[in-house]
Design goal:
single chain; alpha+beta; Na+/H+ antiporter like fold; Alpha-Beta Plaits; five-stranded antiparallel β-sheet; 7 strands
Length: 561
C-alpha cells in the first residue's frame, strides 16, 4: 500500500513539474497551456500510470471540484473597478449569449450530425461556455483596451455557472416532463439563490477576516477559501447554483478591505494552476486516442458553426444595445476560446449514461484542441489589424497590509514601480504624518535605511509604512495620488470620491502617465493651481520634477542619487 502511494506521489510530482515547465513554452508560442496539459494526459493514459482509467463519475466530480477553485481565483483576482463598467454586457453575454449559442449550435448539430433534440441541445450547452484559463493565458500577451479585456475575462467566468445549469437540467431525469416555464423558473431560482448566498457569505467572510487578527498570514487564504467553498456547499444543499455563489463571494472578498490580500491572491492563483493542471491531465487520461480520429469531422462541423455562426450572433445580439464598436464585436466573436469547462461538462452526460454521450465527449475534446490551435495564434494579429492594441500600459502600485494588533496599527508595504511619479519625490512631500502614517523603512537594492523627510524615492524602492487604526485608507489614497500626479497631486486625500483606482488593501492600482484613474479615455483629475512651499524652499521657488533637471542630491539614504 505504501509502495503504491509513494509511486503515485512521485508520478504526480513529475507530472506537475513537467506541466509547470511547459507553461513557459506555451507562453512563448502564444498558446493556452491547456493543450500541453491535455497532451501530457494522453501520454500518461497511454504509456504511464493512467492506463485503464475509465472512472467517469470520479472524473466528473474532480472536474467540478477543480472548477470551484478556478472560479474562485477568477473572482478573487478580478478588480471591481474593472468589472463595474462592463458588468451589464458581461451579464448579458453570460445569459442571453449562452442561450443564443445553445440554440444555434443545437440546430447545426441536429442538421449536420442527425441528432435528436436532447442530444443536440447538449452539444450546444456543453460548448456554450468560454474558458477563463484559456482566455487569461492568451490575453496576457496582448495589450488590449482594459474595457475589452475585462469584458472577455468577466464573461468567461460568469458564463460557466449558466452553462453548468443548462447541462445539468438537460441530463436530469425530469427532462421532457417539465414545461418551459418550469425550466425558466428553476433557472431563475438557481441564479437568484446563488447570488444571494454569495453576497451573504462575502459579507460574513469580510466581517470575520477584518476582526479575526489571525496569528499567521498563511491562515487568511485558508479562511478565505473555507468561506468560498462553504458558499458552494450551502447552495448545493438547497439545489441552487453553487458556482454562482462561488464567483460572487470570491469577487466580494477579493475587493474587500482585508489584510494580506496579495497573499490570498497568490494562494488562489497557485491553487487554480494546480486545479487546471490536474483536471486537464485527468481529462487527457480519460480520452481514448483510438476513438478521436472518428470525432474529427463532427468536431470541425460543430466548431465551425460555433465560431462562425453562434458566437458572432451571440455577440451581435448582446453587444449592439451597449453600442460597442464593430471592431470590438469582431474581436469578441473571435476570442471566445473553449477550454477545460466544456470538456468537464462533457463528462456529465457521460456519467449519466445518456445515449450518444461518448461521442459527445470525443467531439468536444477534439473541438477544444483544434479550435484553440486555430483561434489563439490569430488573436494578436487580429487585434492589431483592428487597431485595438494599446502600447501604453497602466502602472500599478501593490500595497500589502498586515495588522499590528498589539499596538493598534497596521504595516503597509509597497514597491515603487517603473513609470510611477513617486520616483524622486521626497518622503516629506508625501505628507503622511498628518494622516496618521509614517514611512518607517526603505529597502533599496538589498539595503535598508530609515528615511528622513528629504530622502528621495527611487524606482524599485520598497517602503514600509506604519499607519494608525484610522489612517490606512487616507494614506493609500495619498500614495496613489502622488504616484499618478507626482508632486502636483492634491495634498489632501480624496475620500470616497472615486477619483483613484483604489480597490482595497491588497493592491492599489494607479494609472500611468497620460491616463486618468479609470484608464484610457477617462477624464483626468483637475490639478491644483498652486501648492504650499516644500521644506527648505522659499515661496515662489520650485524644485525640478522628474523628467526635467536632475533633482539636487540630498542626504538620508545610501548610495549616490
Amino acid at each position: 500500500m505504501t509502495a503504491h502511494l509513494d509511486t503515485a506521489l512521485l508520478a504526480g510530482a513529475l507530472v506537475v513539474l513537467v506541466a509547470v515547465t511547459a507553461v513557459r513554452l506555451s507562453v512563448r508560442l502564444g498558446l493556452p497551456s491547456l493543450l500541453v496539459y491535455l497532451g501530457i494526459g494522453l501520454a500518461v493514459g497511454e504509456t504511464g500510470p493512467g492506463q485503464g482509467f475509465t472512472d467517469v463519475e470520479l472524473a466528473r466530480s474532480l472536474g467540478l471540484t477543480a472548477l470551484i477553485f478556478i472560479l474562485a481565483e477568477g473572482g478573487l483576482t478580478a478588480r471591481w473597478r474593472d468589472v463595474r463598467p462592463i458588468v451589464g454586457l458581461a451579464a448579458v453575454l453570460a445569459t442571453i449569449g449562452v442561450v443564443v449559442t445553445i440554440a444555434v449550435v443545437a440546430v447545426a448539430a441536429s442538421v449536420v450530425l442527425n441528432l435528436d433534440v436532447r442530444t443536440s441541445l447538449l452539444y450546444g450547452a456543453v460548448v456554450a461556455s468560454t474558458d477563463a484559463a484559456a482566455v487569461f493565458s492568451t490575453l496576457r500577451s496582448i495589450a488590449l483596451p482594459r474595457r475589452l479585456s475585462a469584458t472577455l475575462e468577466a464573461e468567461s467566468i460568469a458564463n460557466d455557472p449558466i452553462a453548468v445549469i443548462a447541462v445539468v437540467l438537460l441530463c436530469s431525469t425530469s427532462w421532457g416532463h417539465e414545461s418551459v416555464w418550469s425550466v425558466i423558473g428553476d433557472v431563475a431560482y438557481q441564479i437568484a439563490v446563488g447570488t444571494s448566498v454569495g453576497l451573504v457569505v462575502g459579507l460574513a467572510g469580510t466581517a470575520f477576516l477584518r476582526r479575526a487578527a489571525l496569528p499567521a498570514s498563511g491562515l487568511y487564504p485558508l479562511a478565505t477559501f473555507a468561506f468560498i467553498v462553504g458558499a458552494y456547499a450551502t447552495c448545493a444543499l438547497v439545489d441552487a447554483s453553487g458556482f454562482i455563489a462561488v464567483y460572487v463571494s470570491a469577487l466580494w472578498l477579493g475587493n474587500a478591505d482585508l489584510p494580506h490580500r496579495p497573499a490570498v491572491r497568490g494562494f488562489a492563483e497557485g491553487l487554480a494552476w494546480l486545479a487546471q493542471i490536474g483536471v486537464f491531465v485527468m481529462l487527457g487520461v480519460l480520452a481514448e486516442p483510438d476513438r478521436l480520429p472518428s470525432a474529427v469531422l463532427p468536431a470541425l462541423a460543430v466548431g465551425a458553426a460555433l465560431l462562425l455562426l453562434a458566437r458572432p450572433l451571440a455577440v451581435l445580439t448582446c453587444a449592439t444595445p451597449f453600442r460597442r464598436p464593430w471592431r470590438e464585436q469582431v474581436f469578441l466573436s473571435w476570442a471566445g476560446l473553449r477550454g477545460a469547462v466544456p470538456v468537464i461538462l462533457a463528462t456529465v452526460p457521460l456519467s449519466a449514461n445518456l445515449a450518444g454521450a461518448l461521442q459527445l465527449f470525443d467531439v468536444v475534446f477534439v473541438l477544444v484542441v483544434v479550435f484553440t490551435l486555430i483561434q489563439s495564434p490569430l488573436m494578436a494579429p487580429l487585434a492589431r489589424r483592428l487597431g485595438l492594441v494599446h502600447t501604453e500600459q497602466l502602472v500599478e502600485i501593490s500595497v500589502e497590509s498586515a495588522p499590528l494588533e498589539s499596538v493598534h496599527a497596521e504595516l503597509l508595504e509597497l514597491t515603487v514601480p517603473h513609470g510611477s511619479r513617486l520616483i524622486f519625490v521626497e518622503v516629506g512631500e508625501l505628507r503622511l504624518p498628518e494622516l496618521g502614517a509614517m514611512v518607517s523603512l526603505i529597502v533599496r537594492e538589498g539595503r535598508t535605511f530609515v528615511p528622513d523627510v528629504s530622502s528621495r524615492l527611487r524606482e524599485g524602492d520598497r517602503l514600509l509604512v506604519v499607519v494608525g487604526p484610522d489612517g490606512r485608507s487616507a494614506a493609500q489614497e495619498r500614495i496613489a495620488a502622488v504616484s499618478q500626479d507626482g508632486r502636483a497631486a492634491s495634498w489632501r486625500p480624496v475620500r470616497g470620491s472615486g477619483q483613484r483606482s483604489v480597490s482595497g488593501p491588497g493592491e492599489r492600482s494607479v494609472s500611468g502617465p497620460g491616463h486618468g484613474p479609470g484608464g484610457p479615455g477617462s477624464q483626468p483629475r483637475e490639478r491644483p493651481k498652486s501648492r504650499p512651499p516644500r521644506m527648505g524652499e522659499r515661496r515662489g521657488e520650485r524644485s525640478s520634477e522628474p523628467g526635467g533637471e536632475r533633482p539636487r542630491e540630498r542626504g538620508g539614504e545610501p548610495g549616490p542619487e
